[in-house]
Amino acid sequence: MPTITHGFDWPDRFVVGTVGLPGDRTFFLQATDRGRTISVSLEKQQSAALAEGVDELLATLKSRDGNPFHVPDHTPDELVDDGPLELPLDDEFRVGILTLGWDPTTSQVVIEAAPAPEVDPEEFEAANAAGEDSVELEFEPEEVLLVRIPVGAARAFADRTRAIVAAGRGQ
C-alpha cells in the first residue's frame, strides 16, 4: 500500500503543543494550512531534540558567508505563535521517526515525521537465535507528515518548542 503523505509546504501554522498537566502532558506536532489540520503525538524528548536540531541547522546556515538565507537571530514578532493547539485534536499517529533536512532549491527546512516501524517479535527472536547482530527491517510507513517551512518560521518553531518543553515540571 502506498504511503499517505500529509504534506504542508509553507503552512499557515506549524507548532508543538501539549495537552494535560505538567508531569502528565501529551505532546503534539501540528500543521495547519487553509483550514486543514494534521496532528501527530510525540515524546517530550523528541520535541526537544527536534528544536535542537532546527537550531543547529539554522546556526549552520547562518554561519555561511554573507548569511545568504537571511536566518534571523530571534523569532520575528509577526511569527511568534503562543496560541493553543487547533481543536478538535485528532491524533493521526504516534511519531517514531523524525528527520530534519534542508532543501537548497527552495530554501526551506524540511521536517518529516513517521510512525515507528512494527517489528515482528518472531522474526526478531529468530534473527537473535541465529546470532545475527541486527535485523534488517524494510520499512515503508503507512502515513508520514512532511512539512516544509522557511527559516523565519523554523526559528519561531524552535523557540516555541523549547518554551513548551521547559514549561513542564522543573526542567
What series of H and E elements makes up the topology? Answer: EEEEHEEHEH
Uncertain ranges: none
Rounded mean pLDDT is 89
Number of domains: 1
CATH architecture: 2-Layer Sandwich
Distance between the termini: 42 Å
Q: What is the number of beta strands?
A: 7
Organism: Corynebacterium terpenotabidum Y-11
Protein name: DUF3090 domain-containing protein
Pfam families: DUF3090
Provide a descriptive summary of the structure in words.
It comes from Corynebacterium terpenotabidum Y-11. It holds the Pfam family DUF3090. This is DUF3090 domain-containing protein. Helix 1 links the parallel strand 4 (36-42) and strand 5 (91-103). The termini are far apart. The protein is built from three helices and seven strands. It has a seven-stranded mixed sheet with strand order 1-7-6-5-4-3-2. Helix 1 (44-62) packs antiparallel against helix 3 (151-166). The chain has helices spanning 44-62, 121-129, 151-166, and strands at residues 4-9, 13-19, 26-33, 36-42, 91-103, 108-115, 143-149. The chain has 171 residues and is an alpha/beta fold. The protein has a single domain (4-166), classed as Secreted effector protein pipB2 fold (2-Layer Sandwich).
List the helices and strands and how they pair.
Elements: E1 4-9, E2 13-19, E3 26-33, E4 36-42, H1 44-62, E5 91-103, E6 108-115, H2 121-129, E7 143-149, H3 151-166
Parallel strand pairs: 1-7, 4-5
Antiparallel strand pairs: 2-3, 3-4, 5-6, 6-7
Helix pairs in contact: 1-3
